[in-house]
Amino acid sequence: TNKEHAQQLVYDAMEVQGPKRFKLAEEAINLDPNCVDAYVILSENSTSLQEALMLSEKAMKIGEKELGKAFFVENKGHFWGLFETRPYMRAKAQYADALYQLGKITEAIQQYEEILVLNPNDNLGARYMLFALYLDKGELSKAEKLLNQYEEETAQGLYNKLLLELLKNGFSTKAAKMLKQAKKQNPFVISFLSGKKDLPKHMPQYHSWGHENEAVIYVDVHLHLWKKIDGLQEWLKKH
Questions:
Q1: Residue 94: closest CA among 49, 138, 131
Q2: How far apart are CA 215 and CA 30, in angstroms?
Q3: CB atoms within 10 A of CB 159
Q4: What are the residues whose beta carbons fall under 8 Å from the beta carbon of 125, sequence distance 6 or more?
Q5: Where do the H-state alpha helices sit in the chain?
Q6: Do residues 40 and 56 lie in contact, with contact meaning Cβ atoms separated by under 8 Å?
Q7: Alpha-carbon distance 59 to 42, whole Å?
Q8: What are the DSSP calls for 16-34, one per residue?
Q9: pTM of this prediction?
Q10: Contacts of 55 (CB under 8 A, 6+ apart)
Q11: Residue 78 CB contacts under 8 Å (≥ 6 apart), including other chains
Q12: Residue 132 burial (CB < 10 Å; 0-12/13-18/19+)?
């Protein structure tokens, strides 16, 4: 069917970069105007944030309609595990990101929270952006609850625990211990936080635990939050 053919074109598009990726997405929409993933891909190539927001919102609404209200009620908590939910989830994540890029923090938080309700396993990593947005809003208790919900010994988990401790209690003895643990997991983060290194112009396409690409992805989202801490540079030099 046209619908199946369009989805296959989208899968092909996901395997390539550059103009061909977007050409395949356009072909998919010509075959199936309700092809959610095609709009998600085209939103990546938007000429403005407003256009990205419009395309991702359109994709999300099409996805909602395709699945139907009853599906959401019956399968809440199991999304992503169900294959047919994935285009909608990708669209919702893209929409949340566009809201964030436009400075619509409250609206972005709502979208990320809904993603976690639909899929507590969080295959898309919505928790990372949600944590940063909670801190943007000064909602430390919500940020702490989120960290406790997703306990993980990665750069994201360890540096965010440290960040929260610094915001709550300053340069405590506990913070010094947490810094040591975080540096052991990924020492590259410190170079960016201290200003010794600048972030690259282009974000890495993937990351590996403990490597510099993991540090780049983490710092890109969280650096502005670390910069709010007075005396951070001096403290990092001492430890």
A1: 49
A2: 40
A3: 25
A4: none
A5: 2-14, 19-31, 36-44, 49-67, 69-75, 86-101, 105-118, 126-136, 140-149, 155-169, 173-185, 188-193, 212-226, 232-238
A6: yes
A7: 10
A8: --SHHHHHHHHHHHHH-TT
A9: 0.91
A10: 39, 40, 42, 43, 46
A11: 119
A12: buried
Q: How far apart are the first and last CA of the chain?
A: 62
For residue 82, list its beta bridge partners. 79
In this structure, what token pair is assigned to residue 228? 């709010």
* Mean pLDDT in order along the chain per 10 residues (239 residues): 94 93 96 96 94 97 96 96 96 96 96 98 95 96 95 92 96 96 95 91 82 93 94 90
Write the single-letter amino acid at 158. L
- To 10 degrees, the CA torsion angle through 114, 117, 121, 123? -20
Token couple for 150: 């997703």
Position 89, amino acid: M
Residue 236 CA to residue 30 CA, distance in Å, equals 55
